[in-house]
Each structure stands twice: as C-alpha cells, then as structure tokens.
Amino acid sequence: LQPLFKMSYSCSKVGDPHPGQPYKGGNFRAFLPDNPAGLKTAKLLKKAFERGLTFQIKSCNGEERVTWAFIPHKTSWDGGKARNGYPDPHYLHEVGTIL
C-alpha cells in the first residue's frame, strides 16, 4: 500500500503556531473500502486535502509537527473504532457528514 498523503519540508502559514517557521512533514496513511461509498469518500477527502483541511501543525517541545486535523481517518485495517480501524460500520456516514 502507498501512503494516501505524503508531506515534505515546508513552511507554516498564518494561523499555525509559529507562522513562517519551517516544519517537517511525514507519511500519513488512511484506508477506505473499495466500493462506491469508499470512492465517494475518497473524492471528498481529496477536496478537503486541497483546501488545507486534512492536516494541522502543532508545536511540541519547540518543534513544529504535522498532525491529522479534525477529519477522522481510518489508519488501520483492523482494531475497530477504538484504534482508528475497521470494522466500523458507521465510519463512512460519519466522515461523510463531517466532509
């Protein structure tokens, strides 16, 4: 599997903890089912990413870090809702409502 989102080195923007300061990106993976509802959700997540809503920058111990923003993502195929994984029969509806 390839990462759904990949960020590299960049600078923070207005509204971030330290605007204009550099931060290090990371690899972020999210999983969706390969069905019509999953594909619809993927399109909505892409729009959210393009609008800068997928990630946020947090300051931790004087270092800027990229983290997931408020949109929930399934980062594991298993473990259930408690571990951001599947099975979670309500996920696609819940994330669709947020998006």
Automatic annotation (TrEMBL):
Pathway the protein contributes to: Protein modification; protein ubiquitination
Record flagged with keyword Cytoplasm: yes
Protein keywords: Cytoplasm, Ligase, Metal-binding, Transferase, Zinc, Zinc-finger
Enzyme nomenclature, EC number: 2.3.2.27
Deltex C-terminal domain residues: 6-96
Keyword Cytoplasm included in the entry's annotation: yes
Highest taxon above the source species: Eukaryota
Reactions catalysed, as given in the entry: S-ubiquitinyl-[E2 ubiquitin-conjugating enzyme]-L-cysteine + [acceptor protein]-L-lysine = [E2 ubiquitin-conjugating enzyme]-L-cysteine + N(6)-ubiquitinyl-[acceptor protein]-L-lysine
GO CC entries: cytoplasm
Any GO MF annotation of the entry: zinc ion binding
InterPro entries listed in its UniProt record: Deltex_C (IPR039396), Deltex_C_sf (IPR039399), Deltex_fam (IPR039398)
Cell compartments where the protein resides: Cytoplasm
One BP term from GO: Notch signaling pathway
Pfam families named among the record's database cross-references: DTC (PF18102)
Protein family: Belongs to the Deltex family.
Protein name: E3 ubiquitin-protein ligase
Upper classification of the organism: Eukaryota, Metazoa, Chordata, Craniata, Vertebrata
